[in-house]
Each structure stands twice: as structure tokens, then as C-alpha cells.
Amino acid sequence: IESIEVIKGPAATTLYGADAAGGVIQIITKKGRQGQQGIQWSAKAEYGTIDWHLPMRQNYTLCTRGGVLSQTATAISRITHNSWPGCHGMNPDAPWQQRLLVESPLGDPGVLRSGRQLGYDLGARGGGDRYSFYVNAGRQDEDGVFQNNWFERTSGRANFTVTPLDPLELTVNTQYSRTGQQMPLNDNASQGWLRNAWRGRPGFAAPWANGWLGLGPEQIAIYDNVDRVERFVLGTALRYQPTTWFRNQVSMGMDAGDRVVTLFYPIDRTGMQPYGASNANGYISNLDRATRDYTVNYTGTLTANLRPDVSSAFSFGMQYLADNYRSVQTVGEGLIADAVRLIHVDNNLATRVFENTTEQRSLGFFLEEQLGWRDRLFVTMGMRIDDHSAFGENFSTVYYPKAGVSWVVSDESFFPFRGVENLKLRAAYGHAGNAPSPFAADRVYGAATGLGDDGALFAALAPDAYGNPNLRAERGVEMEFGMDASLLQGAVGLELSYYDNRTRDALIRIPVAPSSGFTGSVLQNVGEVRNTGFEASVFGSPVHNRNFSWDTRVSLSTNSNLLVSMGGAREFVPIGYRGAQRHQEGYPLAGYWVEVPLRDASGNLVLDAQRRPVLADEMEYLGNSAPTREASLTNTLTLLGNFQLYTFLDYKGGHYLFNMSEATSVTDGNHILANNPEVDMEEWLLKRWGGNHQFIERADFIKLREVSLRYTVPRAVTSRFGGNNLSVALAGRNLAIPWTRYKTGADPEVNVWGADTFGRGESNSVPMMRRIVATVNVGF
Predict the structure, then answer these.
(1) pLDDT confidence of 346, banded at 50, 70, 90?
(2) Which pTM does this prediction carry?
(3) DSSP-assigned letters across all residues of 276-315
(4) Which helix (DSSP H) or strand (DSSP E) does residue 465 occupy?
(5) What span, in angstroms and rounded, lies between the C-alpha atoms of 701 and 738?
(6) How many other C-beta atoms lie within 10 A of the C-beta of residue 261?
């Protein structure tokens, strides 16, 4: 990677269309340098360890008289005999502290392992008078902390640039990668590692391993889910500048990916069906996915000096995107042997096939004019017009205007602050869009089977998706104001921004009227969402001399989001676990809502006839599910010009997290409060029957993201061996959580919902692993 650029919403939409409404991260890869030169080689090797370093949940069991006297059962039937072998031999009249069993099954020997990562990389760059190139090849292997978890990647890249004529330049970029990974089941999967370890009862004779909920480590490791991907990316760009005032660029690209996901269960020979009756005779599934994405872009720029102190840059262009997706899934149930994994009617008791195809197209045109005055005041205006295949048939195109101004006020003669070398003020306004998903606008019917009057079956159509012919893109209207400053002769830098983003025509699912003959919900453009916040960064070099330098950066940001309106379509939309999160007008998106236990005038809990707390009829808003405050601190210390120490601290706060692992621990009976006879009764009643409120905690935290130490060997030493540069480094990532308000879980950043946009919660979720990596870089 040569550089990384971030393009924000309206500016990104002008260049890349509706898919870029949330902004674009532009990664620029390395290229060669033109001019007569020798080939420059670079190589990197790294080795590291991966470990679970955070606390693990503990399970508790209080051995009662019944548990101490329970009988021993056979392996197959012991769960039905209620056997507690861990309690045998105890004195049932001993103090409860001596009868309390405490286990953390995930920490048992042989369950987890110390993972490793190994990587190699070799690159070369060079060029001549009219050409340059960069090539690179790499290999990466990882073994995770779980027994059935690994990752591998082989990749290569080649970038070529040719200048056959002075005004003409052709660039070709290619990349090929082949990856594979085996992923274990986790989060709250019934056959996952953490669910079975953290929901078990110490001392209990579970079906497969004492103290585990259902499956034991050996059975969980059988789960074989392998994901393999081959990807080829080809991009070309032709730049033509016939005059000094006219630049043209045409670029075309293709991203082709082929992915095969294989899930395999061997034939069960125990008779206990650990993975269910349907998989007991063996199971194999192959999901083949093929994606083909194509892009065509043209950009032209005309530059001119309208007056000696006024410059103009007028840009125009178009973009065409075509995304194609096709998947075929084949399933075979009942294998003739574990080694025969071909899905065929002759090899399996039952076979099934599923197919899916999706196509998307978008076409956009844009115009942009930038006027500059004395190279200090710049005014930009632009417009993009888009059409997208996912729009409804009654909606064709969408327009995205933008405008911006920046002023280097420190260049003015009247600027009074001598300690400020550079001060730029900026403001921007623009529209951005987000297209709906494919087929969301279409009315869809599914295949069905009917029964005729004569008793014969016939093919039929059944209502599937209602569709919305008026569906259009969400529209974001954003304003941003900010400043960039350099102070004290460049020793201190300052960046400040304020943004106000309003999303209109937000897509919200509305229940379909039963009279239509359809069920479910349909997307409609009825919502309005507002996001506001500040971003600030202060950076500089407090100390800088020959033997020691200190570079530091502090970044702060805030975000406040509000669901302004749902157009009267719905009162609220429940999401997440137990409906604890909602989209509701006048409140943040996906906020947490809780049932509050009632109390009498004396402050005592109101209990029902079963001696359980009575909860309020109406749920109350508790707080945000996403951070509202973020901050980071990085420091780089350089000693004697060769040693460099880097640290990165990260803070997120102002939000809550639903610890579903804690909730299930209470209901499963392996929580400490459920096994403590001296527990405060009100505390236990609230924990057991007090609703979601008891498990939704503040999730503010500070993380030590990284600490690294690098030593660069002096050039005088490396030149003796024909090298240009040599460095060795040791880095630790995800090292610690020095402080957090999240007390009952290990990591406040986990999320059981994964890629889900709004759902937030922990449910037997795997935290980030600690990585210690040693790296050697050499150039010659």
C-alpha cells in the first residue's frame, strides 16, 4: 500500500454514485518509478502468536444433598438420571462455600491452543525512461485458538505504467489472491464452543463432557466449515493530456470472485447424534458463489486562468457499474462413506439444489467546477445524476448537488496571529444517496404446489414480496464546517470539523395490508434521520532533536443520531434480542429500551403472587447502542534515529451493550447468584425476574490497541551486505483493556449480530485475540 485516502459522503457520491453514500476509503497501491534505475527488491517475513488473553466466564454449581447422593449413569443415559459426579464424596452438611464448584471449561487443558501466524512477502519495483513496474507476491498462514480454525492466503500483484508519448500514459493493475479458512461455530450457536462451555453446570454429567452444556470439545471440533475464495482484479487507466489545460482519463475494471463454502458432518458412529438426526448419516453442502463486477469511468478536466488571480478547473465525467452475482448450493444427506464427498443421487440418500441470481446496474454523470482566487480562496460546485436498476418503475433518476468553499485566511495581509503559520477555513454542503437492495421494488411470486379437485397436484404461484414501484434512493443532506491550522512553526497541527447530516426518504419496512394477499413487510421511503457531531485532532512534535523526537496525535469525535420521523407508518420497529432495541421517533436509532421494575412509596419492589417483581407496562428508553464519543492517542518516540517506539490507545463511550451471556447464565442456573444461599434477595429477584434492564450495561472502554518497537539498522552496516535498508520490529496488538464500565463481560466491542447494521449484543461471543508479531523488513 502506497497511501490511503478517505473521501466523505457528498464528495464520494459525486465521484462514485449511490454506493459511496457513506464515504469511500481509497487504497493506492505501490507503483514503479520511471527513469533508468536498477530493480529495487523488498522482502518481509513475520512470525507471531495469537492468544486468548481476556478473562473467561466462570460457571458455578452448589452441590446440594440430592447432587451429592445422585447415582452414576451410563454415558448415553446419564443426563436423564440427573447425575452429579462432581458432587460425589462431599459432605452435604459442609458450609456452602466448600460445596461450591467453580469451573471455566474453555480454559481446560487441550480446549484452546496458542495460535500462530506466519507471513512472507517479496516485492520488486523498477522502470526505464518510459515505463515502470511494481510486482509483489505474498503468503500468509494462521492457526486460530480454536482447534477447527485456520486461515491461509496466497496473493500476487503487478502494476505497470507505460508512457508511449508525452501526453499519453497507460496503467494496468492486476491482482490475484487465493484464500481459504475454516471457521468454527460460535456466538450463541447450539453447537458452538462458547455456548457449550459457558452454559454448562460444573459437576454435572452432561452427554459428552462433564461440565459442558451439550457437546464436548471433541464433538465441537468435528464441525468442518471451509470457505475458499479465488479473486482476480484487473484495472486499466488511460490518461491523455493533449494540452496543458485539458486532461482526460478513461478507466475500466473487473473484479471476479469465485467462492466455495463447504460444510461437512461425518457419519455418526456413536448412536448419540451429536449434530442432530438429520446429520447423523453424514451431511455435505457446497455453496458456489460467483461475482463479476465491472466498472467504466471517464473523467475530463479543463483548467484555465480566467484572470491573473482567478483560476478555474471544470471536471465532467460518467460512471457505469454492473454487478452480477450467481450462487448454486447443492446438499447431500446420507453418505456412503466419509471419504466420498461428491454430491450425487448415487452417493446420497437425499439431494437438494438451490440457485440464486442477482444483477444490478447503475449509470451516473457528474459535473464539477472549482474557482480559485489567488491560490487561497476556492469555491467548488458540483452535480451528479444517477439511475439505478433497484429504483422503482415510477422513479427514474436522482440528483446529488454539492458546494464547498475553503479559504486560507492566514495568507491575507490582515491576518493578526503571528504564531499561526497556516489557517484554512472550510465549509461544504452536499447530497448523497443510498440505493435500495435488488428486487426490493419488484412484486415477486414464488413457486408453489396446489391440489386440484381431482386430488392431483399442480404447479402454482404464491404471493412472495409485495414490492414498491415508487421506491427511490435514500437521500442524505450534509453540511460540514471546519478549520485546519499549523502553529508554532509547524510544531503543532489542529483539525476541527462539525457535521450535520440529515437522511430523508430513509428506507423503513412497513407491514403489508392483509387485504393485498401478501404477508410480511415492504420497503417505503418514509423515514428521516439526523446525525450531528464534532471531530477534532491535535498533533505535533513537542520534542525534536538529533537524538530524540516525540510525535503525538490526539483525536476526539462525537456523534448524536436521532430518528426524526417514520412518516407515521409505524410507532416503532423492534430489533435485537428480546426486543430490547428499537427504532422509535424522537430517539436514537436502535436505542436500548427496558422494562423498569415497579417500587412502592417506601422504595420496595412490588411483587406479584409468585413473588416476582412487577414490571412497568411501558418500556423506557435507556441509552444508545452505538458509541457517541470516541478518542484516540498515538505516540511515536524515536531514540538515536534508529529505535522507534509506537503506542496506540483508543477510547469509545456513551453507549450500552446487552450482555445476553449474563442473562442466559442466570436462567441456566450456573450464575454465582443462583448458587449463593446468602445472596441478597432483592438482588436475586431483580437479576432473575427484573427484565432486560439487569443485563444492559454501560460499555465505555479504553483499549491498548498496539505497542511496537522497531530498530532500523544503520545504512553503513546494511551496505556492507549489499542492502539498502534493514529493520526488525516487535509489535503487540489488542494487548489490554486498562479501563471499562462493562463489568460482566470480557470485551465490550463484541457483537453477536456480526455485520448487522443496528443489532448490538454479546451472546457467548469471541473477543479480540492478542497478537504478538515479530517482523523483519529488508530492501536491496
Answers:
(1) confident
(2) 0.88
(3) -GGGTT-EEEEEEEEEEEEEEEEEEEEEEEEETTEEEEEE
(4) strand 457-465
(5) 8
(6) 17
